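Schema walk-through. Below, the input block comes first and the output block second. Nothing else is stored per chain. Lengths vary across the set, and this one has 313 residues.
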Amino acid sequence: MLSRAAANLYWLARYMERADNVARILEVAERASIMPNSAGEPQSEWHSVVIASGNEQGYFERYDEISREKVVHYLTVDTSNPGSIRSCIEKARANARAVRTVLTSDIWEALNQTWLDLIGDKREDVARGELQAFLAWVKERAQMFSGGAHATMLRDEGYWFLRLGTMIERADNTARILDVKYHILLPTDEGIGGGMDYYQWTVLLRSVSASRSYYYRYRDTLRPWQIAEFLILSEEMPRSLIACVAEVHSLLDEIAKLDGRRHECHRLAGQIYSHLRYARIGDIFETGLHEFLVEFIDRNHRVSDEIADAYLQ
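--- output ---
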């Protein structure tokens, strides 16, 4: 496969996954903002969303202050923001058009209809204040794309690069959503384990569609260390960090078998997977969950850079 086609597939998947995860981060903030005393300052939860989504610099180049309305607009439909949901879906469709012959009709039609709906009636949901409806629609369309790819694509290098982009982006965003816990969900007057804290962890689980799975797995009340363990170290949870890294490692192995060579990205992915596989949640909390997540995001970014150097240039 040509590197250009591989790059188009890789970034198509990343942009669709990013749109989905921006919606999830916004959902966390919206739920947190209606809780009493959810944060120290009135607008701190929305500032933290801008930070967690990686859009802080661009936001303050456009706006002088934080407000719910400005943050929601900037992260959903603002065309000047390359990380907004609208921009992500637009770039995903552009990448899909470049490799349309590789994609099945189900995938293309799902992407194209998503774009047409977005520039039509759906963007008006945000203007009308129907944020929850808009976010639910974004998640539904992202799942339709993912499901179409899983159900209809040949299991060849095109599919591998598509999944590779999805998993790299998903790992990054699961880590960022977890980090939101320490940006906007941790009460200033109550430590881990309090009543407010448990409610906030429930919000977090729902944002990654893991609430029912958590109760099925642990059959227990909400315990912060178990929730963190579930979203970091449980390979059975498809959005966990280790599940994403394990699939990245496996996909790179498949590509290496076809290519006949291994690169630095293979070593780094294997290193991260081994680290997570033998990690213990107690040690992670002892050294600091925030510090662990920041380090993970940096290492995941390095893997992405090495994938680009090896295959996407």
